[in-house]
Specification:
The structure is a single chain. With about 240 residues, this protein is an all-alpha fold. It folds into 3 domains: about 90 residues, Rna Polymerase Sigma Factor, Chain: A (Orthogonal Bundle); about 35 residues; about 110 residues, Up-down Bundle (Butyryl-CoA Dehydrogenase, subunit A, domain 3), CATH 1.20.140.160. It contains 11 helices and no strands. Helix 10 crosses helix 11. The termini are far apart.
């Protein structure tokens, strides 16, 4: 509606404002659910939804019809970007878990240097002395950091052409550095692995849809997805150290 009328959100009637905001509520929740599925369990869905709602309000204020894109597209990008901004602002990893991640990263780097290959789960259990549940929790948190950065690469690329202020947090030098590093590492993945990541994170297909697009089983998609994330994790730690 906004791109068709060329009017600003502030100039709309209260009824039109309410109707547009209500129409986006399911999309905000869907985006929050999509992101939460990749994050540790203690991240509250309500926090992501609240951030997304603020992102929608920001989109209303910043949208310009002369951008040449649909308002829906502009708003979806800002909603997801606001959720990612909020995750970066909050300390979403406890201090204890963050210390475990750093210790595990060091163990993996030392193991690779000594043995020439990445450690298996069983080898990590033996080297760290952790029980399986503790190890899986730590690895999940480490993978979540990488997934969050993959989401941010997608969001950053979509927003690059929207005239966003270069001083906003999303374009900070430190975070851009992580994006650049991950981008180079993704280029070194196998073609199938890159394709799975692209379809899953950029095109936002689910595992079943990716399987159908590539004419392979859903189990194979899941395997390629995990394999790609594992390679990114090991390459990043080997070349750059801690992702934070």
């Amino acid at each position: 509606m906004l791109e068709q009328t060329g009017t600003s959100f502030s100039s709309l009637s209260p009824a039109d404002k309410d109707r547009i905001a209500r129409a986006f509520a399911p999309r905000i929740k869907a985006s929050a659910l999509h992101l939460k599925a990749k994050l540790p369990a203690h991240i509250e869905l309500s926090d992501l939804i609240s951030a997304g709602t603020l992102g929608l309000m920001e989109a209303f204020g910043k949208f310009r019809p002369d951008l040449g894109i649909r308002f829906d597209t502009f708003a979806d990008n800002r909603i997801r970007g606001a959720m990612l901004d909020e995750l970066r602002r909050m300390d979403w990893l406890s201090r204890g878990l963050r210390q475990k991640i750093k210790k595990l990263e060091q163990v993996i780097r030392e193991f690779e240097q000594e043995n020439g290959h990445a450690p298996s789960r069983n080898e990590l259990l033996e080297v760290t002395g952790q029980d399986r549940l503790e190890l899986e929790t730590t690895l999940e948190a480490l993978n979540s950091q990488i997934i969050l950065s993959l989401e941010a690469i997608q969001d950053h690329g979509e927003q690059a052409g929207e005239g966003r202020n270069h001083q906003e947090p999303f374009a900070s030098a430190a975070f851009q550095d992580i994006i650049d590093k991950l981008g180079h590492l993704i280029d070194r993945l196998g073609e199938r692995e890159k394709l799975v990541l692209s379809l899953y994170y950029t095109e936002e297909l689910n595992m079943k849809e990716v399987a159908s697009a590539l004419d392979i089983t859903e189990g194979r998609v899941s395997q390629l997805h995990s394999q790609a994330l594992g390679k990114l994790k090991h390459m990043f730690m080997r070349e750059y150290g801690d992702i934070n």
